[in-house]
Amino acid sequence: MSPRCSHRRVQQLALLGSIDPAYISSPKCFWAMNFNTLIGLFKLSSSTGEKMIRPRVDANGNWLLFEKPIAICPSFANIGASAKPIAFGDFSKFIVRRVKGSTTLKRYLQAPSLGENGLVAFEGFTCASAGLLVASGADSPIKYLTCPAS
């Protein structure tokens, strides 16, 4: 097994082990990463060429890593220096606040190549903020894997 691949596997296990087992037992406990990171994990192989992580899915078609579902989050960073490409934990503690009355929808009829092709475009906006619900002095229910700086 190459040191680089072994190091990534150790990092994933360290992230898994850093979460309180009470959070891991939650039905909302899962991994979050972008699709490029997921494919990168599936490509990890040992020095003998054996795949270190075999693609698995549950009965609902969700990808699994260490028997926990994986959520594909396109806005997460790719694996790279100082990046935070993977999160793991109890996402039921992730609270999103949407500002009432902030959602707007714009309709475009006359943008280039729309009208002449009988098409309509829509663009939506909303105002929201989010945070983790954590009791004072308690461990964080969600943690990130941070890549080394080099």
Q: Please, could you describe this protein's structure?
A:
The structure is a single chain. The chain has 150 residues and is an alpha+beta fold. It has a domain at 3-92 and 136-145. It is 19% helix and 27% strand. It has 3 helices and 9 strands; from the N terminus they run ααβαββββββββ. It has a 5-stranded mixed sheet with strand order 2-3-1-4-9. A hairpin with a 2-residue loop joins strand 2 (64-65) and strand 3 (68-72). The protein is extended, with a radius of gyration of 20 Å. Mean pLDDT is 86; it is low at 1-6.
How large is the radius of gyration?
A: 20 Å
Main beta sheet strand tally, sense and closure:
5 strands, mixed
- Tally the helices: 3
C-alpha termini separation: 20 Å
DSSP E strands, number: 9
Q: Roughly what fraction of the amino acids lie in strands?
A: 25-35%
SSE pattern: HHEHEEEEEEEE
Secondary-structure-derived class: alpha+beta
Shape: extended
Low-confidence stretches: 1-6
Average per-residue pLDDT, rounded, comes to 86
Which range best describes the helical content: under 10%, 10-25%, 25-40%, 40-55%, 55-70% or over 70%? 10-25%
Strand order in the sheet with the most strands: 2-3-1-4-9
Quick take:
This protein has 150 residues and is an alpha+beta fold. It has helices at residues 3-17, 21-24, 35-43, and strands at residues 29-33, 64-65, 68-72, 86-90, 94-98, 104-108, 121-125, 128-132, 142-145.
